[in-house]
Specification:
Length: 107
């Protein structure tokens, strides 16, 4: 939700620290897996839509590396105009979203 609502407003260097600091590593990893699955389905309908290889990350930096993967995947979605073929995503807990506005204001 954060990426889809801000991808056209902020550049990657602004989005990366917001995503990395706002979400827990497990949330980023889960979002990457869900988005990859959905994008793979959407890309099957579009010829020439090869997706970047995104390995399952391990180790201490897996959260930050997964943020990079998530942003790379979302860039591919944007470039290939697959956004309309994806399901709509929502957040199940909006508790921290007021902090997001403060983070965005500093970018």
């Amino acid at each position: 939700m954060l990426l889809s609502n801000n991808f056209d407003k902020l550049n990657i260097s602004q989005l990366k620290p917001i995503v990395a600091n706002f979400y827990q590593d497990e949330e980023v990893i889960e979002a990457k897996e869900i988005l990859l699955k959905d994008v793979s389905r959407a890309a099957q309908d579009v010829s020439g839509s090869d997706l970047p290889r995104l390995p399952r990350r391990q180790g201490d930096n897996k959260g930050r590396q997964s943020v990079d993967d998530l942003l790379k995947l979302f860039t591919t979605v944007d470039e290939r105009k697959l956004t309309g073929s994806l399901p709509r995503y929502s957040a199940d807990n909006l508790t921290g979203f007021h902090l997001l506005k403060l983070i965005q204001a500093t970018c």
